[in-house]
Amino acid sequence: MKKTYKIEVDCANCANKMEEAARQTQGVKAATVNFMTLKMIVEFEDGQDPKQVMQAVRENCKRVEDDCEIYL
Question: Between the CA atoms of 17, 23, 28 and 33, what dihedral angle is there, to the nearest 10 degrees?
Answer without folding.
Answer: 50
